[in-house]
Specification:
By secondary structure, the protein is of the alpha/beta class. The chain has two domains: about 25-170 and about 380-405, Rossmann fold, CATH 3.40.50; about 175-350 and about 410-440, Dihydrodipicolinate Reductase, domain 2 (2-Layer Sandwich). Helix content is about 30%, strand content about 20%. It contains 14 helices and 19 strands. The protein has helices spanning about 55-65, 75-90, 100-105, 120-130, 145-160, 175-185, 220-225, 265-270, 270-280, 360-365, 375-380, 385-395, 405-425, 440-445; strands at about 25-30, 35, 45-50, 70-75, 95-100, 110-115, 135-140, 165, 190-200, 290-295, 300-305, 305, 320-325, 330-335, 340-345, 350, 355-360, 430, 435. The strands form four sheets. It has a nine-stranded mixed sheet. A hairpin with a 4-residue loop joins strand 16 and strand 17. Helix 6 runs parallel beside helix 9 (about 270-280) and helix 9 (about 270-280) packs across helix 13 (about 405-425). The longest helix is centred in the C-terminal third of the chain and has 20 residues, at about 405-425.
Length: about 450
């Protein structure tokens, strides 16, 4: 059984993960669907989504079978209007639209918010939403800095709100990752020695010039807590997922490649695969003792941990990071090879990603299956219909969901530390008890950031 926190009482880290009502699949009602634990259509919670491009509308679309959406918010009026129209068609009722998310937080009729803004906005909106009495579903990576994660933990405890992080591999992907965790926990590879998380690299950008701000985009509000800088873009458009925006910019979609707004691949895909790795080895309450940047490539020059140019992507393009984990487990995070997780132990190895789970321990399941309840033991109950259903079931039970804030922050600390180590070009020693970098004041300065004046968190 993995550990979690209740949202009332002592918030003991080692209380049971969730109640028996937790995790049952959604079932059909005469004219709607609901998450387990809701007895009638009138029980459907009222949601709002803040940040609509790509993942914002994706998680909204997955959730309308369980919840009614009363409002949407986005700083890009074109994105907002398109999604208002789409959601009106899908749920047969037009939600209200806002450019300023704070108008959503002021509404007493909204039970929960889904946050899918760029990463540098997550903490401010999440904290203010909880203080306004809302439960929160926030996309990964949850934070831009380690200090932000600790603040969110404090406010979850203070307010008693339910908080789900969007690391949906814990619930979805045909339960492949749940099976992977169960294989490890049931000793099918013996003692774990090494885990390799393949999260791909990224291409560097050309020089990206200043450009006119697109019509309908409130650029100052998009920047929010980040420093005031010019909008930059090249005319070529991105194709495929996230398409229709400039392929190279410091805004829509490409924000992931700038440390000012995100953490590159380390916090994008790392937030998924490092999460599963830590879960499998029981490291959701602890962290590494050392982070070593074995090899890496930064696309621009750095000095004292800061990029020296402002017109190109600055997150690492290639990397191999080694984290020394408890029980002498070596955790590698690499841009090379297949995207997925390779588990290696004293008696076997297997590989898992969103499309497959392969290896001798997997093949052996044909003749030596896992115990009947192995997946449920990992999950803490019957696996939910999808990640949103798990969130709504947690809202009903008032227990924290499968992707809780504490375990997410613990694994995300590894990703954040990896970025700091590459920016400074040296290994970092970490105290998982105090959650501090040991003996390196310069590195410790990167554990937090200062918000731009006017965009501080409203406490």
């Amino acid at each position: 059984m993995i550990s979690s926190r209740t949202v009332s009482g002592s918030l003991n880290r080692r209380q049971a993960l969730r109640s028996a009502a937790f995790g049952a699949a959604a079932i059909c009602l005469p004219s709607t669907l609901r998450a387990a634990g809701y007895r009638s259509p009138n029980d459907r919670p009222v949601f709002a989504t803040i940040g609509l491009r790509n993942q914002g509308i994706t998680i909204t679309s997955k959730s309308i079978q369980f919840a009614d959406f009363a409002a949407l918010a986005d700083v890009d009026s074109n994105v907002l209007e398109a999604n208002l129209q789409g959601l009106e068609k899908a749920q047969k009722k037009r939600p209200d639209g806002y450019s300023d998310y704070r108008k959503i937080l002021d509404r007493s009729d909204i039970d929960a918010v889904m946050i899918a803004t760029p990463d540098h906005w997550h903490t401010k909106i999440a904290v203010e939403a909880m203080l306004a009495g809302k439960d929160v579903y926030c996309e990964k990576p949850l934070t831009l800095t380690i200090a932000e994660g600790r603040l969110i933990e404090k406010v979850v405890q203070q307010t008693g709100r339910v908080f789900q992080v969007g690391t949906m591999q814990r619930t979805e992907s045909d339960q492949r990752f749940l099976q992977a965790v169960a294989l490890v926990k049931h000793g099918r590879i013996g003692t774990v020695k090494r885990i390799t998380c393949g999260i791909n690299g990224m291409e560097p950008s050309p020089v990206i010039p200043e450009a006119p701000v697109p019509a309908g985009l409130d650029w100052d509000f998009w920047l929010g807590p980040a420093a005031q800088v010019p909008y930059r873009a090249l005319p070529e458009l991105r194709q495929g997922y996230g398409g229709g925006v400039p392929l190279f910019s410091n805004c829509h979609y490409s924000f992931r490649n700038w440390h000012e707004y995100s953490g590159g691949k380390l916090t994008d895909w790392g937030a998924h695969h490092v999460d599963i790795a830590c879960w499998a080895i029981g490291a959701t309450d602890t962290g590494p003792s050392k982070i070593t940047p074995v090899r890496y490539k930064l696309p621009v020059e750095y000095k004292d941990g800061n990029p020296q140019v402002a017109d190109q992507y600055n997150a690492a393009t290639e990397f191999l990071i080694r984290a020394e984990m408890p029980n002498n487990v070596e955790l590698l995070i690499t841009s090379e090879g297949d995207n997925g997780i390779l588990f290696e132990g004293t008696s076997g190895r297997f590989f898992v990603n969103r499309g497959k789970i392969t290896g001798a321990p997997v093949e052996e399941l044909k003749t030596k299956p896992l115990p009947e309840n192995a997946i449920e033991e990992v999950y803490g109950g019957k696996v939910s219909a999808n990640h949103t259903a798990n969130f709504i079931e947690a809202m009903q039970s008032r227990k924290q969901p499968i992707s809780d804030v504490w375990s997410h922050n613990r694994m995300l600390e590894i990703c954040h530390l990896s970025n700091i180590a590459m920016r400074l070009g040296r290994e970092l020693r970490w105290d998982p008890q105090t959650r501090d970098i040991i003996g390196d004041a310069q590195a410790s300065a990167f554990l937090s950031r200062e918000s731009r004046k006017g965009y501080e968190i409203r406490m």
